[in-house]
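Batch job 17 of 40 flagged for manual review because the log was empty.
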Amino acid sequence: MRVIWKCLEPMKESIFNEFDLKNEARYTERGRKMLKRFTQSIEAGEYSPVLNPGDIILTTPRAFETDSNYFLIQSMAAGTPLKNFLEDSGGQIEHLVDWKQKIYSAILMVYGFMVVKHGFFQADPHNGNWFWEPESKTVTLIDWGGVEELERDTHCKLANLYSHLGKLTKAWSDCEAVKLWGQEEVAGTYRRAGFSIYQAGENQTALFYGRTYGISYFNQALGLRLFYNDEGKWNVVREHPGTQELTETVAELETKVTNMRGLASNGAKTWSLKGHKGRILKYPLRVTMEDPKSCKLPTRSEAYSLAAYKMGLKLNFACKAEDTVVVPEAPLSEDEDAMSQWKDNGKRQLGCVTTTEEESFLTWGLYAKLKLIVETKDGKRTVKLPDNKTYDLDEEPKDVKVEGWVLDAFSSESQEKIAKLSEGRQNMLLKSAQAQLAVASSLYDSDILMAAVLGLQAKDSVGLITPIVPNEYVMLARCIVVFHGMLGDVLKDNFVRFAVTGQQDYIQWLVRSGGDRFFRSWLKPAENYLGSHRRTCPTEDWKALDLPES
């Protein structure tokens, strides 16, 4: 209940403001002016190639203030609620493509314009508050009674977040690019562009539904995407959104090597290329990739976690020092049978012992949880795991390295508890804490797969470390959750149909982030704000996240 209230408490003022319709009239007109400027920016080509001139218009209803706080004159929004449009679009690929490429992209990008450039936004952007009129290509955002206006310090921190991580996102994409050498139809530079999802093999961690992830690459000049697929092949494809067959295979290589760095180290391989009239031709192609370390960039986990710390996010250590133990890494599986077949991979994580009048036990596992009874003999605590072996819970971790600032991210009460841990346990906890902070930053982006990947790195700290989100970010976080929910609803409504009809490529296409991703598209409004507020919004505190000088 405390967590729920933490999210709801900042909404008190927003909710009560909705009863003052004079405010709503003023906010609606203010929003209308912002959305008009955003549409003008689209028409000027400032958001190409994601949103091109003529693609879409964003607006609000007209609102007229009266003498009464309880009476408002407002025009009707054109079209139908987006919620109804999506419900009626089930099975119609063309409508889903329009939603993903234009409507959803415009919603994500206009919020960057409102939040980061202007510090003012409608705080309840669910599907029922957006109207879509396809003939005029107009999206209307209604219900401006509940809004959020950022304090100057909060606005400055968010602008720095999206500026620094936006620049790093582009730098990572360039640095991790691969080059394909050989036939001119496919040769060129492919930059990192999201993830691909495929069936998890042996010893691969599944993200969901038995599927794991790999990196996807895109060649803008050729319009080709390179990724690993369910059939055990590296594919070069051309995508045709809106058609029954999303992808047209241009080249493919059957291999068990799922990692691009591994593929690049194997030299030239014989790929199958689609020739004239569908003929399959064999050609040698070579993949090369630079060492990302040569770019001298921080890792995503390092940069994301430091950004969360700079934003003022705090952590709470939820276990007593004397109850904090070291245990073998638990599997991620949701299958209890798989848990019974668990084998020790040599990795260790922290756990928290719970003691009652009857027993001491440890909860082990993220999804399929096991209750492990803690045995104590001669002061030594042990548990028996599914492999029927006994493991020492007081083992001291070794060679764990961590950034020195991470401890400062904890509350003062938590720091006192952490000080009582052994050095090895301290470092292990702080490493997990850094992973938690990285996940926190990723949730201010719109790339749900990146958040899931970083979440895997933080899984060991679930239950041990809990985030403390400052009130000033809660309303924006709520909006972002709504946007993720929009995408989640579309996936839920179409997942089975795409799987049954053999159109799994559309599942990846829907999930994959593009140019509308916050850490790309919110960079420009962040730079605009920082550029016009140099005196009141310093960037010096974020220097550690500046790009290295070339």
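Reviewer: the log was empty due to a logging misconfiguration, but the result itself is present. The radius of gyration is 26 Å. Unflagging and moving on to job 18.
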